């Protein structure tokens, strides 16, 4: 096994035991980037020389018995909305040409303090305003979409071009590409991980979280990232929690909510079969399945767009008026549409969110987690704009991908996408687990218990 094939947990353990050199690990990942990135274009920029320098420093520290933290010497890719001191934050947009971050974002600083080595910045749909990341190809099929907006991060991890990565999630932008590329994506509770130094899409919906190969890896990264930062007005001062799941989690008595409505409506048959098989596996592990009804489903799409669109337009107001020609057409149209939304529409969306949060809180008193599909279909062909369901109805691809993930953004509850197999075309399928606010430990415990029953997942092919 090559070092780039190791999970984060295994790599960190081997480095701490002095069986693996941080230099060897970083070199292996950089070699893998050279091999696969020309085919998938996961990275905006690769910081190879800086990464090698940081790896040499980490190796020298390890030789003295000094380990900065749990991620010492482990290479990571960061979505190119996340500031790293001295590096460009392009947001995959011409609008940001020449931009260079003056200081680390909170999450970049925390990764650095834990010993992680940045190998590059990963592509996003322009300013995270989309669900496909068009410049990046799916790790399993270059003719299919990567998912978005954290597509570069998910593809890099799936292909072995990063040991782990960070993404952001406003309507599913971590979980969607994680599901479509067969990796784990975690959107934490709103306010758990600070967003200071991260380019915003929608202030009241934005989250930042890890993209990893395994649930255990996600727990390791989340433990490093979580914690209060007063520079983010939404950041909450909560007690520090070690999110790492126990080695052999017991799901006896855990109540898993299985939706009767919404989450299995207009879902591809192969996706539904794989997810229901995953849910059945949780029952085999001791979980108690409870049928539930998802509330206020007719308002979900309107609430998501009613919050996101005007907030995004407000953020881009200056550049939209001065350099509109620098935006890609799809993003510019959405930003211009936001100028047509009135204050009344935005306030109604805020009220709808409050009511939805109250209803979800009642459901989550009856169950410990909810299990459902992460996305309604696997990765579509590049350029496909709509999907036709078995009842003859059609839906835009972007609407379909956000449909099952946006409720967790609206309500702020934590959500986790875990791979549960592939369809007959070989494309990955993801199961979504949703939990109570600040219930990440339970969520990760359930995901880890499921994952331990499955064969080890292989990397996506190199080309």
From TrEMBL:
<dbReference type="InterPro" id="IPR023631">
    <property type="entry name" value="Amidase_dom"/>
</dbReference>
<keyword id="KW-0808">Transferase</keyword>
<feature type="compositionally biased region" description="Basic and acidic residues">
    <location>
        <begin position="231"/>
        <end position="250"/>
    </location>
</feature>
<dbReference type="Pfam" id="PF01425">
    <property type="entry name" value="Amidase"/>
</dbReference>
<dbReference type="InterPro" id="IPR000120">
    <property type="entry name" value="Amidase"/>
</dbReference>
<feature type="region of interest" description="Disordered">
    <location>
        <begin position="231"/>
        <end position="252"/>
    </location>
</feature>
<dbReference type="InterPro" id="IPR020556">
    <property type="entry name" value="Amidase_CS"/>
</dbReference>
<protein>
    <submittedName>
        <fullName>Asp-tRNA(Asn)/Glu-tRNA(Gln) amidotransferase GatCAB subunit A</fullName>
    </submittedName>
</protein>
<feature type="domain" description="Amidase">
    <location>
        <begin position="25"/>
        <end position="444"/>
    </location>
</feature>
<dbReference type="GO" id="GO:0016740">
    <property type="term" value="F:transferase activity"/>
</dbReference>
<dbReference type="InterPro" id="IPR036928">
    <property type="entry name" value="AS_sf"/>
</dbReference>
């Amino acid at each position: 096994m090559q070092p780039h094939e190791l999970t984060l947990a295994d790599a960190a353990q081997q480095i701490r035991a002095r069986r693996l050199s941080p230099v060897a690990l970083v070199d292996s990942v950089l070699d893998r980037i050279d091999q696969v990135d020309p085919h998938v274009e996961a990275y905006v920029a690769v910081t190879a020389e800086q990464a090698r320098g940081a790896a040499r420093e980490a190796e020298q520290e390890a030789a003295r018995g000094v380990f900065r933290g749990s991620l010492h010497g482990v290479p990571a890719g960061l979505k190119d909305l996340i500031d790293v001191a001295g590096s460009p934050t392009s947001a995959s947009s011409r609008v940001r040409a020449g931009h260079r971050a003056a200081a680390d974002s909170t999450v970049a600083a925390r990764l650095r303090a834990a010993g992680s080595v940045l190998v590059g910045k990963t592509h996003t749909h322009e300013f995270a305003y989309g669900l496909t990341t068009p410049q990046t190809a799916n790790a399993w099929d270059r003719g299919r979409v990567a998912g978005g907006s954290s597509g570069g991060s998910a593809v890099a991890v799936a292909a072995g071009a990063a040991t782990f990565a960070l993404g952001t999630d406003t309507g599913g932008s971590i979980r969607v590409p994680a599901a479509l590329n067969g990796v784990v994506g975690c959107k934490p509770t709103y306010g758990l991980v600070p967003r200071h130094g991260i380019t915003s899409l929608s202030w009241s919906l934005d989250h930042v979280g890890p993209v990893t190969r395994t649930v255990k890896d996600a727990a390791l990264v989340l433990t490093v990232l979580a914690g209060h930062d007063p520079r983010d007005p939404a950041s909450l001062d909560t007690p520090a929690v070690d999110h790492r799941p126990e080695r052999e989690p017991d799901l006896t008595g855990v109540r898993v909510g299985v939706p009767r409505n919404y989450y299995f409506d207009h879902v591809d048959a192969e996706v539904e079969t794989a997810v229901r098989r995953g849910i059945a596996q949780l029952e085999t592990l001791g979980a108690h399945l409870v049928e539930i009804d998802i509330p206020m489903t007719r308002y979900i799409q309107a609430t998501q767009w009613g919050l996101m669109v005007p907030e995004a337009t407000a953020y881009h107001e200056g550049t939209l008026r001065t350099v509109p020609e620098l935006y890609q057409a799809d993003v510019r149209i959405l930003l211009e549409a936001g100028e047509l939304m009135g204050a009344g529409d935005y306030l109604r969306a805020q009220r709808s969110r409050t009511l939805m949060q109250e209803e979800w809180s009642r459901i989550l008193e009856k169950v410990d987690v909810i299990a459902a599909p992460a996305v309604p279909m696997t990765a579509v062909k590049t350029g496909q704009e709509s999907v036709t369901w078995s009842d003859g109805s059609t839906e835009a691809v972007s609407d379909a991908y956000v449909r099952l993930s946006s409720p967790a953004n609206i309500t702020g509850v934590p959500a986790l996408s875990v791979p549960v197999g592939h369809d007959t075309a070989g494309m990955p399928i993801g199961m979504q687990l949703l939990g109570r606010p600040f219930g990440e430990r339970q969520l990760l415990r359930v995901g880890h218990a499921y994952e331990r029953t499955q064969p080890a997942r292989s990397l996506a092919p190199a080309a």
